[in-house]
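Note to self: keep these together.
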Amino acid sequence: MSLVRRLAVCLSLATALPAVAETPRPVLRLDVVVPGEVVRLGDLFQHAGRHAEVPVFRAPEPGHTGQVPAWQIIEAARRAGLEPETGDRNRQVSVTRDARVVPLADLEERVAIALASSFGLSDSSRVQVSFDRGTRPIAVETEASGSLDVIRIEHDPRSGRFDAVLGIRGSTRSERSGGFRLAGTANELIEFVVPARTIGRGEVVRASDLVVDRKPRNALPMMTGDTVVSLAQAVGLAARRPLSPERMFRTIDLMKPELVERNANVLITVELPGMSLTMRGKALEAGAEGDVIQVENLQSRKKLQAVVTGLNRVAIVTPATARSAVVASSRAP
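Structure:
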């Protein structure tokens, strides 16, 4: 067989054979998230193959991120027998440890629950907790699924300062460090009522006119024993003076609604044994239900003391005054 013929046969055989796939070279990842304490080649490289489980270095603490020079990782891979791509040699690799993160809101709630009883409260939402500046959420291992517990807590009621140690069951990090120390202030929140708008003198207060607010007790130096702290104390009463929006007010600032205005025409009722008499009059004073005001009989022009009984209605209840009113009315032309 000639040389040309043999070459043609070899070429035909070569095209008939299946191509052998090349194994891709490992490629470095620049952002890595690892679940455990150890970072392995499989975490750092795509296509690490049989070298994937080779440990390289310890991972950061749960929830933390570290920066590692790429060239150091590439050299460690070569020592382990891996030949990666080297194009990212001058870059930094970000390595983050996955974690179960307990947010600050959950930490505040746990401290509030622990302190509620010291304030004599059954509702922990009435305890305001503020951590010191720089306090961060707690991060532990992802597999630590135990409850968040208060191991120890101390509170100074005068200053409001507290120191607490919290732990998470099943967390190696929590157990190794003896828990996580937190410090800050905790104060009882006091509820009180403020107007949502300006309420004029004599205006009857409705529930929609008021807002319930909360502030720490130590932030309310002007609060007194008769400060209005619930809607029930104010709704249905009238303002004795103008009430300003968002400002506390007292029960002394309220009164029963005025049913009789000054100079209003009123119906005067006189009750005597076996006799009831009504007459027209004029209110010389304003008054709420039950108030004793001075009125004038429009027939006799006599001034009388009467009790407000309803809207523009008064009654003379003193027998001597009642008789005098009847006699004066009967004598009037």
